[in-house]
Amino acid sequence: MALEDICCFKDKPTQQLFPFPALETDYHNLELERLKTSQTNWGDPQHIFIPPFPQATPFISRRTSRFRPPNHALTVQRPFPLSHGTTTLGFIFQGGVIAAADTRASAGGLVACPAVHKITPIHSHLVVTSSGSGADCMLWERILIREIRLYELRHKRRLSIRASAKLLSFMLHPFKGTDVCVALTLCGWEKEGPQVIYVCSDGARLQGDIISVGSGSPYAYGVLDGGLSWGLSKEEAISLAREAVFRATHRDAYSGNNVDLFHIDAQGWIQRPREDLKEEYYRELERRSKRRREKKKRDTIESS
Amino acid sequence: EMLSAQGFGGPGKMKEYHYAGAVENRFSPYAFNGGTDTTVIGCSGFHGDCLTLTKIIDARLKMYKHSNNKTMTSGAIAAMLSTILYSRRFFPYYVYNIIGGLDEEGKGAVYSFDPVGSYQRDTYKAGGSASAMLQPLLDNQIGFKNMEGVQHLPLTQEKAVQLVKDVFISAAERDVYTGDALRVCVITKDGINEQTIPLRKD
């Protein structure tokens, strides 16, 4: 197609045909391929080694090639769990965008790290929250940051948020159907106003007013839907976001520890200091006991 | 096999790195000097992948040195290792890595990895087969977590080495895969100091 040729974007099949042609695969991670292709505009963002033998096809379950090996029972399971599970959210209001996330990385049943950064700034007015597999998100964020910066340097203007989301979605497309699990929310401010866009490795690309992703997202959505309106003040919006993450971490096993909050407005992003949700829990207990005491006092006054 | 690394930017400006070696009566070290005076990398998991990965890192360190005329900093090694691990996303190196070293300011830095390349800079981390047992202990002793009203005394080098020896002795008691010997590498601005301490041999 003409457009494909101009953009040099070809839908690369990740599964190789059998018997395999002798390809220059970067088996030893010496990155010689990348050094050669870095001169072109649209080189491979990251050379990813696709194992060339049939036993690895469970990782790459895309095209049914007519050379598919007959023995489907040969599955190679990964012997270790990857970090997964989170609560992240982003919403827009009159004062900009709020992006919030918890900080727990779980691998199977173990908390792999209680203090992970799930919100990463891309440039001064764009922040991305990550959810899904930790390694995938980290690397794809890095690739996205690099590509956006390269675009900025080459074309002397910044990519819009919708264009960045499109770019990310197209870069992830070759890995659709594979094990890559990336669900990123791009939250940012541009001259059209605040925007929140959700990009997923399954191919989804959605713009919205409220986006919450992760295993704790149903709980967060409940709190956000209850309290969100366009006219919120900055402090109200921040406390709403914090409350949403707090409730989600309470109910979801895979979210927890601290909450990271970013606020993006016309001047750029500001990171709030990381707050331990343990303190929030005790404050909540305090508030509840105070309410109970006051209610009891009122009841005794009314009855007397 | 198990290893742990602690780093702290305390007054001594040093960083420690320790590992336990040996599988099947052989002493096979799991830590290797990253070709620099300020970084040590430790790998636990599948030993074949550990060996290959260390060879690849060695080659990449040399390539960097020859093309950029300077040694890689700990942060740079960590970022590079992350991309190396991720390039094998669909057929991963089954290795849990921990990098310990000094950063540009001379403070201790510990970077811990998962098998596909996600990494994080920490103050302390335990990795390997006994990591689930030892990480809480490190959280408590070095991070002073889960305790109320305690004085946060900065960790000295002697105390840190003793703590790590204790940690590994406990690991050898309760984890079948940990034992035989312990090799401790203490990295300070003066260089890397290595000691070998025997552990339970069963």
UniProtKB/TrEMBL annotation, chain B:
One Pfam family hit: Proteasome
SUPFAM superfamilies found in the cross-reference section: N-terminal nucleophile aminohydrolases (Ntn hydrolases)
Gene3D superfamilies: Glutamine Phosphoribosylpyrophosphate, subunit 1, domain 1
This protein's UniProt keywords: Cytoplasm, Nucleus, Proteasome
GO biological process: proteolysis involved in protein catabolic process
Primary localization: nucleus
Superkingdom of the organism of origin: Eukaryota
UniProt GO cellular component terms: cytoplasm; nucleus; proteasome core complex
InterPro entries the record matches: Ntn_hydrolases_N, Proteasome_sua/b, Proteasome_suB-type
Stored PROSITE patterns: PROTEASOME_BETA_2
Protein location: Nucleus
Protein name: Proteasome 20S subunit beta 1
